[in-house]
Backbone:
């Protein structure tokens, strides 16, 4: 069975209004494409009994105990959370670039899909939305309700302000004591040195870090022609650019930036991936799963 | 630069269009939202600078292309001299070389005729009111406002016989042009540009609006034989003896050539020969002539006709005597080895038939009452006449006769000074020196004398150089000589000195005649001189000089015809006759004891007879006028490097085209259009290279960041 990501391109998918639905389609399509049960890997352990109280779900009533002792007990299970995953989503103004779907919308959809997949796998997923400051934090939980909260939180924000990735990295590193997985979705328009320090801080806290560098195709190829005035989405600064003349040096500078990041990430054992917004979500999810598998 | 359609220059404003378009596009650049300008800002400084250079270069090319298009439409014309296009005032001077080398004839006619055609082509396009002149060696340098009349007068010109150089004509032409009120000045130099005549270095050509056009007249003929010399070898021209002449012929061409040579005496062919000369070489021939009548005769050498006729004839004039009579006054009237023996032998080595000299000998006592006028020269050899005998000698010299005094070294100086040194002839002594004893002794070899300070330019010694003879004057030894002293304020000329510095040979004018003194015996018991090679030509030269005028000086065309005779008894005027109809007169001008008659420059080769009256009789002198043989040279130069910014033309058509360019200018529309097209092409190529070159650089910069998953 082919997944929804293979049927609809990511830009078409991301344009759908319901982020939760998008995530579900993406993940279920992705999982069915794996030819395995979506519940593999989930562990549910018995914890204790407690007396039944009205309102409890009858599905959890221990019928055998009722038959033996004629007492109503409800089984309490200890839901085992495999890991805690923090989704750091960049909501700076530069993420508002892109057409027909913006980098932010792509990141929203991707973050929702990742959260859904994590929760399905009994992983606790949390979200940190940031721009030049932390905009919203949802602590990791492994419930579907939490997924809906995540989707709502993601949907509620619009790109704004400048980018300060490092602040978000440091904040997560400081506040999250337990070792977990940090997934970053950002265009990383921040000082490379600060980004490196932030990532090092995360690694220092034993977090596994997965860095998705979200870039629009036009950002990569710079396919502009005539003399234009380029406006910075974050600062509103303008400069006149002759794209034809600038293209070689621009491409070179961007490549150098990405290569530098990749090298730093490699040194810090951070998984770094450039994500073109025209690329299918499945590839990102597969990358995530591969990383998740290494965590055990 | 001028413009035929200047209103098209308004189109120059179109050059502002690319600038305006550039500015408009720069101001109206569309706004593009971009996530971050970080990388653009990072590369902007280097890229923008290079991009700005590219844009400025392209902008410059576009502006230049439009400027050139507008200029091309305006009809630009270039005038090298900078004068205004179509100016009505032009001053043109044609320097037409009329030296005789321009008479060189080939299948297309003479060089001069072609030069006339070129001058006509240069002047015929002038309009009334333009100033023009044609300068030749014989024309007054003057500008005329009637070019048409000037063109007509060209037909009357002929090549002259002169050998003048171009420099004076060019300087006169430049002077005319410098003073002319004209917007355009043109100087045409029409010549064969012989190497010897093209002396244009150092001329100041700086005249506003001057165009110099050089028109070298080339010729297909490369052969010409020139008579370079015709001169007498015999010292005396008499009817009694053959007269030997030397003829030199130069071959100016590269190939060997031979011609028939005729030598005439007046109109009679006296000798005939063939002469051959290798390429660039000279051939010399000696011919014996026989004069059949005394009097002034013209000897003419003539080569067969060739490409250049003017240098095929040379001539000289000589006064022929029945015989040349010389008197020797010596101590003994007769004797086989008389004191004058070597002198007589030198004058007549082969007897009277050899040179035509007839010598008489007497002793001093026989002088009294003797008519000395029939002797061309009287030798007073080692004898001292007494006062009575000296009188005829003084009269002879005072009347224009010549005397040679050969001093006996043992002579008594007071007696010599008393008779020959006394002021006796118009306040002058007969002898040019006074004697003061002797120098040297036969018994003292260390006291022997030689000759030094010999005036080889004097006519006495002129014959010694003939045939390239080099004589060692110091080799003649004088055992004992008279010590002579030239008196103060004397006008005597010392021709040679003894090694002690004492005068050896001295000459002075005395009355109308001349006296020459040798301060030594010329006998072998006193000196070895008579045995030396130079003795015979010396004695013959002495007689030829003192017997003058036996041969008149030859003149070149252009030199001044002058007669110089002693002022005493000189007439107020003299006549010069070139032909019975060409007779001119010149008044005497006194100069240093002489009367000088100047008849002006000799214009044509030939002969001229000068007549004047002296002592009631008519005196005659005939003068030969020859061309300069060097003018026959075929050695020419390229004049272009000699004249700054000059033009060169070869034919009348080329000249007309050049004149059209000079006067109307060179049209530049086509070059401007081509240049504009090339600029547009260059702009397109550069623009394309800048655009696609960027793409190639982008590829070279490496791949863009990709999804590394």
Residues:
């Amino acid at each position: 069975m082919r997944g929804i990501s293979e049927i609809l391109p990511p830009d078409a998918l991301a344009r759908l209004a319901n982020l939760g639905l998008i995530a579900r389609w993406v993940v279920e399509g992705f999982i069915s494409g794996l030819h395995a049960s979506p519940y593999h890997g989930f562990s549910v352990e018995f914890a204790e009994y407690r007396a039944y109280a009205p309102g409890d779900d009858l599905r959890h009533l221990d019928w055998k105990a009722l038959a033996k002792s004629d007492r109503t007990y409800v089984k309490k299970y200890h839901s085992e959370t495999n890991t805690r995953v923090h989704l750091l989503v960049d909501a700076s103004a530069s993420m508002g670039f892109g057409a027909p779907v913006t980098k932010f919308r792509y990141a929203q959809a991707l973050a929702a899909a990742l959260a859904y997949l994590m929760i399905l796998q009994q992983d606790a997923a949390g979200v940190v939305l940031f721009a030049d400051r932390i905009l919203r934090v949802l602590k990791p939980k492994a419930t579907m309700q939490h997924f809906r909260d995540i989707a709502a939180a993601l949907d509620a924000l619009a790109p704004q302000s400048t980018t300060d990735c490092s602040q978000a990295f440091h904040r997560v590193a400081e506040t999250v004591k337990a070792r977990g997985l940090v997934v970053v979705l950002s265009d990383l328009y921040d000082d490379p040195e600060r980004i490196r320090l932030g990532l090092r801080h995360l690694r220092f806290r034993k977090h596994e870090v997965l860095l998705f560098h979200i870039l629009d195709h036009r950002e990569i190829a710079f396919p502009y022609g005539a003399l234009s005035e380029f406006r910075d989405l974050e600062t509103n600064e303008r400069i006149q650019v002759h794209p034809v003349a600038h293209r070689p040096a621009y491409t070179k500078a961007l490549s150098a930036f990405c290569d530098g990041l990749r090298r730093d990430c490699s040194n810090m054992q951070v998984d770094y991936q450039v994500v073109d917004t025209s690329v299918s979500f499945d590839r990102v999810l597969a990358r995530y799963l591969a990383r998740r598998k290494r965590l055990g | 630069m001028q413009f035929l359609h200047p209103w098209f220059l308004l189109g120059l404003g179109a050059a502002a269009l690319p600038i305006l378009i550039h500015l408009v596009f720069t101001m109206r650049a569309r706004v593009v939202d971009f996530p971050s300008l970080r990388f653009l800002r990072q590369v902007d400084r280097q890229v923008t600078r290079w991009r700005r250079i590219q844009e400025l270069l392209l902008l410059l090319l576009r502006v230049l292309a439009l400027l050139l298009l507008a200029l091309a439409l305006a009809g630009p014309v270039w005038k090298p001299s900078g004068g205004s296009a179509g100016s009505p005032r032009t001053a043109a001077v044609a320097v037409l070389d009329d030296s005789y080398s321009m008479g060189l004839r080939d299948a297309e006619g003479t060089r001069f005729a072609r030069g006339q055609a070129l001058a006509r082509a240069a002047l015929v396009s002038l309009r009334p009111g333009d100033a023009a002149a044609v300068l030749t060696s014989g024309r007054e340098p003057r500008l005329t406002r009637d070019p048409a009349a000037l063109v007509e007068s060209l037909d009357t010109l002929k090549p002259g016989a002169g050998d003048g150089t171009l420099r004076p004509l060019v300087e006169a032409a430049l002077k005319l042009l410098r003073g002319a009120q004209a917007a355009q000045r043109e100087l045409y130099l029409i010549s064969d540009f012989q190497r010897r005549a093209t002396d244009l270095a150092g001329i100041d050509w700086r005249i506003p609006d001057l165009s110099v056009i050089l028109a070298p007249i080339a010729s297909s003929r490369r052969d010409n034989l020139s008579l370079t010399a015709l001169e007498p070898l015999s010292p005396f021209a008499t009817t009694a003896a053959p007269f030997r002449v030397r003829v030199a012929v130069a071959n100016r061409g590269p190939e060997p050539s031979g011609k028939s040579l005729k030598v005439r005496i007046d109109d009679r062919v006296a000798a005939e020969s063939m002469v051959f000369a290798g390429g660039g070489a000279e051939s010399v021939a000696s011919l014996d002539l026989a004069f059949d009548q005394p009097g002034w005769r013209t000897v003419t050498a003539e080569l067969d006709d060739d490409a250049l006729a003017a240098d095929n004839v040379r001539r000289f004039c000589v006064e022929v005597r029945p015989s040349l009579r010389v008197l020797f006054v010596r101590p003994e009237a007769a004797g086989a080895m008389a004191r004058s023996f070597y002198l007589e032998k030198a004058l007549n080595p082969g007897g009277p038939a050899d040179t035509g000299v007839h010598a008489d000998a007497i002793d001093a006592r026989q002088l009294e009452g003797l008519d000395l006028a029939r002797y061309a020269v009287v030798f007073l050899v080692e004898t001292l006449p007494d006062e009575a005998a000296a009188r005829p000698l003084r009269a002879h010299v005072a009347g224009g006769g010549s005397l040679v005094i050969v001093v006996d070294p043992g002579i008594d100086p007071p007696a010599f000074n008393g008779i020959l040194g006394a002021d006796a002839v118009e306040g002058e002594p007969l002898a040019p020196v006074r004697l003061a004893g002797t120098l040297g002794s036969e018994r003292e070899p260390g006291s022997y004398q030689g000759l030094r300070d010999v005036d080889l330019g004097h006519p006495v010694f002129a014959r010694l150089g003939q045939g390239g003879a080099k004589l060692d004057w110091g080799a003649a030894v004088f055992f004992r000589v008279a010590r002579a002293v030239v008196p103060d304020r004397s006008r005597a000329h010392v021709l040679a000195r003894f090694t002690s510095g004492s005068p050896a040979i001295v000459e002075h004018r005395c009355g109308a005649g001349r006296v020459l003194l040798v301060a030594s015996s010329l006998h072998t018991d006193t000196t070895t001189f008579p045995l030396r090679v130079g003795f015979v030509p010396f004695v013959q030269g002495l007689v030829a000089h003192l017997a003058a005028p036996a041969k008149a000086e030859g003149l070149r065309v252009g030199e001044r015809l002058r007669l110089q005779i002693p002022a005493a008894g000189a007439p107020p005027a003299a006549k010069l006759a070139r032909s019975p109809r060409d007779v001119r007169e010149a008044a005497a001008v006194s100069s240093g004891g002489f009367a000088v008659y100047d008849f002006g420059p000799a214009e044509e080769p030939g002969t001229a007879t000068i007549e004047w009256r002296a002592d009631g009789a008519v005196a005659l002198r005939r003068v030969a006028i020859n061309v300069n043989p060097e003018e026959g040279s075929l050695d020419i130069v390229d004049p272009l490097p000699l004249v700054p910014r000059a033009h060169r033309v070869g034919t009348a058509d080329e000249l007309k085209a050049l004149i059209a360019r000079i006067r109307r200018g060179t049209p530049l529309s086509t070059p401007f259009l081509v240049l504009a097209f090339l600029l547009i092409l260059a702009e397109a190529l550069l623009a394309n290279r800048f655009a696609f070159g960027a793409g190639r650089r982008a590829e070279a910069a490496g791949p863009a960041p990709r999804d590394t998953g």
Remarks:
- The two ends of chain A are 28 Å apart (CA to CA).
- Residues 91 and 158 of chain A are 7 Å apart (CA to CA).
- The longest strand of chain A covers residues 44-51.
